[in-house]
Design a protein that fits this description.
Layout lengths: L1 E7 L16 E2 L2 E2 H11 L2 E8 L3 H8 L4 E4 L6 H6 L2 H5 L3 E6 L7 H14 L3 E7 L8 E4 L5 E5 L6 H4 L3 E10 H8 L15 H8 L4 E5 L12 H21 L3 E2 L6 E2 L4 E2 L4 E2 L4 E2 L4 E2 L4 E2 L4 E3 L2 E2 L4 E2 L3 E3 L2 E2 L4 E2 L4 E2 L4 E2 L4 E9 L2 E2 L4 E9 L1 E3 L4 E2 L4 E3 L9 E3 L4 E2 L4 E3 L2 E3 L4 E2 L4 E2 L8 E2 L11 H5 L1
Parallel strand pairs: 1-4, 1-6, 4-5, 7-11, 12-15, 13-16, 14-17, 15-18, 16-19, 17-20, 18-21, 19-22, 20-23, 21-24, 22-25, 23-26, 24-27, 25-27, 26-28, 27-29, 28-30, 29-31, 30-33, 31-34, 32-35, 33-36, 34-37, 35-38, 37-39
Antiparallel strand pairs: 2-3, 6-10, 7-10, 8-9
Helix pairs in contact: 7-8
C-alpha cells in the first residue's frame, strides 16, 4: 500500500505558454493527469498534487481525482514535497512523481514499490541510463555499486558529469524517513534551492538503507520542458496507444499517420486507414472502416459502419450505416441503422431513422426524419429565421424531390411525395403529393420574335 505526491508547481517557462506546463496535453490528456492516472493504476491509495504556478487553472483541469497542496513560491523539489507534509504524515510509503513526465508506466511504479519493500529500503530512487545525461541529476555510486548521493548537473564535477545513470525525479520513500530528511535539507547549492535529491545523503548519514531501481525503458523518465519534447512524448504515447489497439484486433494501414487520443474504444476487425484523427470519448464498434481523412470526436459508432473522409462530432451512428465521403455530422445527431449519409451532406442536432438515404449535397438541421425516407440532391432545411431555430419533422417512407426547401417549423406526414424544386412552407398531410413551385411556361418561337 502506498500514496503518491506529484510535483506540479513549477513554472514551465520554456513552454512559452499562458497555461501552466502540466496541463498541456499529450494524446488528449493533460500531462499531470497521465501521471495521476498511472499512480492510481499502480495501486496508489491516495494522490496529492503539489501545485503553485497556475493553481486555479490546474485545479479546474484536474478536478476532484486527487487532493492538492499549495507551494506558493517555487523553492525547489524538496521544498515542494514539504508542502505536502500533512498528507505524507498520514502515509506509510510515499511515491514521489513529477507532473511533467507523462510516459511513466503504472507497472514501473508498481515494480519500484515492490523493489523498495523487498530490499527494506527507506528511500529508493528510480533511475535510468541515458546516452546523453545532460541536464539530469547524476547517480553517484561507491565501488560496491551502492548509491551514495545524487548530484545535480550544475553542482557536478567533470568526473561526475560523465555518469550516464540519472535521477528520473521519481522516488519511493518510507514516509517517516522522508519527513526526517526533509527537515534537514538546506539550500546550499548552485541554484539556492531545497533539493529533494539531498534526502538520500541525509538518510545514508543516519544509517538508513537507500537503493536505486533502474527503469529499463528510459523513454518513461522523459520530462517535458518545451514543445519539442512535448511532441516527442506525444509520438511515444501515440505509438503506445496505436499498438494497444492493434494488439486488440484493430487493423491500421499506416499507424504513424493515425492520431488516437486516450480513452477511445475500438472493436475487433475494424480498419483505420491513414491520416485519421480519433479524439477522446469516441467509441467504435467491430467491422467498421474509418477511411482516410476522417475526424471523429466524441462519436459513438456501432458495428459495420463505413466512414470515408468525414467529420463526426458528439453524435451516434447505428450499425450498417455508410457515411461520406465528405459528410459533416455536427453535434447531437442520432443516425439510425443502414442509413446512407453521402457526399457533402451536413447534419446538425437531428435524428435520422433507419434505412433513410441522404445521398448528396443536403443540409438537415434541427430535424426528426422517419424511416426509409429518400432525399433528393440539394435538399435544405431552412431552420433559422435569424433569431430562432425551428424543427422539421418528416414521417416514414417519404420521397423528397431534388432541391426541396423546408421552411421550418414544418410537419410532413408518412408516405408523402414532394415534387423537385419545391419550397415547402406549410405542413403536408400523410400520403399526399406536394408541389410548391411556379408552373413552367414555354414561349415558343420567342427567339425569332426578339430579333
Ligand atoms: C530534477 C532533479 C534531477 C532530475 C530531474 C529529472 C532535483 C533537485 N533535481 O531536476 O535530479 O534528474 O528532476 O527530470 O530534484 N517543482 C515544484 N516546485 C519547485 C521545483 C520543482 O513543484 O519548487 C516540480 C516541477 O514542476 C517539476 C518537478 O518538480 O514537475 C521537477 O522540477 P524541475 O525544476 O524540472 O527539476 P530539474 O531541474 O529538472
Ligand atoms: Mg525538469
Amino acid at each position: 500500500m502506498f500514496t503518491s505526491v506529484i510535483l506540479a508547481a513549477g513554472m514551465g517557462t520554456r513552454m512559452k505558454s499562458k497555461m501552466p506546463k502540466v496541463i498541456h496535453k499529450v494524446c488528449g490528456k493533460p500531462l499531470c493527469k497521465w501521471v495521476i492516472d498511472a499512480a492510481k493504476e499502480a495501486g496508489s491509495e491516495d494522490v496529492c498534487a503539489v501545485i503553485g504556478h497556475g493553481a486555479d487553472e490546474l485545479r479546474k483541469t484536474i478536478g476532484d481525482i486527487c487532493s492538492f497542496a499549495i507551494q506558493a513560491e517555487q523553492k525547489g523539489t524538496g521544498h515542494a514535497v514539504m508542502q505536502a507534509a500533512d498528507f505524507i504524515e498520514k502515509a506509510q510509503t510515499v511515491v514521489i512523481l513529477c507532473g511533467d513526465t507523462p510516459l511513466v508506466r503504472s507497472e514501473t511504479i508498481k515494480q519500484a514499490v515492490e523493489y523498495h519493500n523487498k530490499n527494506g529500503s527507506k528511500a529508493t530512487v528510480m533511475t535510468a541510463i541515458l546516452p546523453d545525461a545532460t541536464g539530469y541529476g547524476r547517480i553517484v555510486r561507491d565501488a560496491d555499486g551502492s548509491v551514495i548521493k545524487i548530484v545535480e548537473q550544475k553542482d557536478a564535477t567533470e568526473e561526475e558529469k560523465k555518469i550516464r545513470e540519472v535521477n528520473s525525479g521519481m522516488f519511493v520513500f518510507d514516509a517517516q524517513s522522508l519527513m526526517y530528511a526533509l527537515g534537514k535539507i538546506e539550500p546550499n547549492n548552485a541554484q539556492g534551492e531545497y533539493y529533494l535529491t539531498d534526502t538520500l545523503e541525509i538518510l545514508i548519514a543516519a544509517g538508513k538503507k537507500v537503493g536505486a531501481y533502474t527503469i529499463e525503458d528510459s523513454d518513461e523518465i522523459h520530462g517535458i520542458n518545451d514543445r519539442v519534447l512535448l511532441s516527442r512524448a506525444e509520438e511515444a504515447m501515440r505509438r503506445r496507444i496505436n499498438e494497444m489497439h492493434m494488439r486488440n484486433g484493430v487493423t491500421m494501414r499506416i499507424p504513424e499517420s493515425i492520431y488516437i487520443e486516450d480513452g477511445v474504444e475500438i472493436g475487433t476487425d475494424t480498419e483505420i486507414q491513414p491520416n485519421v484523427t480519433i479524439k477522446s470519448g469516441t467509441k467504435i464498434g467491430s467491422d467498421c472502416v474509418i477511411g482516410s481523412g476522417s475526424v471523429l470526436d466524441g462519436a459513438v459508432i456501432h458495428d459495420n459502419v463505413d466512414i470515408l473522409s468525414s467529420v463526426i462530432l458528439n453524435s451516434e451512428v447505428d450499425a450498417g450505416t455508410h457515411v461520406g465521403p465528405f459528410a459533416y455530422i455536427r453535434p447531437n445527431c442520432h443516425v439510425g441503422k443502414d442509413v446512407k449519409v453521402g457526399d457533402f451532406v451536413e447534419l446538425k442536432n437531428s435524428n435520422i431513422d433507419d434505412g433513410t438515404k441522404i445521398s448528396h449535397l443536403t443540409y438537415i438541421g434541427d430535424s426528426d426524419v422517419g424511416k426509409r425516407v429518400n432525399f433528393g440532391c440539394g435538399t435544405v432545411t431552412c431552420n433559422y429565421d435569424g433569431k430562432n431555430k425551428y424543427r422539421t419533422v418528416i414521417g416514414n417512407d417519404c420521397f423528397v424531390g431534388c432541391n426541396t426547401n423546408f421552411v421550418s417549423p414544418i410537419n410532413v406526414g408518412d408516405g408523402v411525395y414532394i415534387a423537385a424544386g419545391s419550397t415547402i412552407t406549410e405542413d403536408i398531410p400523410e400520403n399526399s403529393l406536394s408541389i410548391a413551385r411556379a408552373r413552367q411556361v414555354n414561349k415558343e418561337g420567342w427567339k425569332d420574335k426578339r430579333k
